[in-house]
Task: inverse folding
């Protein structure tokens, strides 16, 4: 055991500190140095104590935060999975339990909840100066030329998984337009955080007319990103209602029930609502009988989606490589700030122009 500089919380109560913390990182197949770790809504939810599903590792008084990371391999004692010293890798968040889905490599679809998530549920995360891991949980960055944006692999893998779920569910009817494309279909992404923008980019890839929305306007950084990528933003609290004709796909990253129901009511026949944002402390909202009729009479599907498997991390890396050419510097502009590990106030004060803030450990 030795002490390592780490960003700590006490889950599920919350709080955050940067301290030396005693950890056993010996005996791992691969030694890793985090270069960048991203901060997302889940980290802030844990710090605020609003995610009751988060918990410390068994027997530990603290949880090392961090599940979004780009790392360099500093040592590897095997050749497993082709991982060698000097490689850039993304460590996977979820670690399997013993259910059939976990055994099949799909712990993202764990059937009994007996899995763990680094930095979230019962396993120390990646916000520390170094750590060890098994090669089977590392995804190699095939083209290190993509640079810092590789840190977006982890949040993007959630989007790739959610679209896999969309692909499955949308097959229940003919969801495309008459040309077999999504060009006449409209999607709306609720929220304007990093996951929302990644969802919107994926929706554009599919060919949807893609809207992104919030209850307030955008500052210049986000507005420029919207312009450069071809998505459409609107402030749903204003009188402008571009969604008059209804949406075919709605993706929620807000976790706010009344906002979710607002967009559920705007779904067309065979519409799909993907729930993604989590906020255990959001106020309740009511669904009435006419909402239930709307869901049934229009064949609407409401689906939850969490996490992603190795295949989604690999897909995310392919998407980032392609988007780097497609969007150029706009993709890089998603990383809006780099801070030091000791700047822990970033967990409690979200900058209004933030798309993705990363902690620089190099
Ligand atoms: P984030 O940056 O906090 O994004 C949440 C977004 O929702 C912000 O842009 C909020 O706006 C916006 N929002 C909040 N309330 C409303 C509302 N009433 N109407 C419209 N927009 C609203 O977090 P993130 O992008 O990192 O993650 C999004 C959510 O997904 C978080 O709840 C995460 O915990 C969750 N998540 C789930 C998974 C999974 O299921 C993976 C990763 C994250 P503003 O007020 O801040 O401007 O696998
Ligand atoms: C992570 C997922 C995780 C989820 C738990 C997200 O921020 O990206 O891997 O399953 O939180 O809600
Ligand atoms: Zn996250
Ligand atoms: Zn399982």
Result:
């Amino acid at each position: 055991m030795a002490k390592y500089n780490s960003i700590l919380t006490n889950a599920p109560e919350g709080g955050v500190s940067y301290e030396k913390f005693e950890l056993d990182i010996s005996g791992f197949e691969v030694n890793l140095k985090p270069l960048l770790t991203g901060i997302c809504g889940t980290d802030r939810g844990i710090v605020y104590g609003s995610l009751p599903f988060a918990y410390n590792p068994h027997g530990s008084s603290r949880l090392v935060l961090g599940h979004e990371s780009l790392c360099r391999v500093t040592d590897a004692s095997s050749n497993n999975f082709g991982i060698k010293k000097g490689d850039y890798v993304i460590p996977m968040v979820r670690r399997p339990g013993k259910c059939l889905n976990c055994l099949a490599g799909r712990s993202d679809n764990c059937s009994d909840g007996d899995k763990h998530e680094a930095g979230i549920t019962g396993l120390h995360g990646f916000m520390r100066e170094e750590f060890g891991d098994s090669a089977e949980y590392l995804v190699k960055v095939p083209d290190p030329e993509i640079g810092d944006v590789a840190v977006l692999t982890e949040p993007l893998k959630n989007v790739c998984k959610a679209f896999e779920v969309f692909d499955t569910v949308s097959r229940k009817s003919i969801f495309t337009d008459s040309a077999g494309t999504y060009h006449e279909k409209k999607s709306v992404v609720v929220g304007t955080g990093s996951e929302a923008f990644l969802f919107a980019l994926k929706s554009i890839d599919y060919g949807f007319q893609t809207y992104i929305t919030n209850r307030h306007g955008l500052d210049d950084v986000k507005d420029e990103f919207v312009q450069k990528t071809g998505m459409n933003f609107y402030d749903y609290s204003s009188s402008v209602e571009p969604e008059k004709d209804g949406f075919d796909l709605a993706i929620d990253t807000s976790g706010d029930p009344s906002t979710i129901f607002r967009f559920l009511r705007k779904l067309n026949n065979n519409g799909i609502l993907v729930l993604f944002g989590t906020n255990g402390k959001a106020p309740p909202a009511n669904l009435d009988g006419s909402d239930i009729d709307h869901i049934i009479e229009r064949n609407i599907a409401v689906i939850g989606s969490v996490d992603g498997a190795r295949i989604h991390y690999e897909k995310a890396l392919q998407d980032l490589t392609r988007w780097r050419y497609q969007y150029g510097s706009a993709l890089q502009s998603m990383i809006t700030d780099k801070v030091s590990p000791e700047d822990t106030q970033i967990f409690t004060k979200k900058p209004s122009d933030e798309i993705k803030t990363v902690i620089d450990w190099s």
Summary: The radius of gyration is 20 Å.
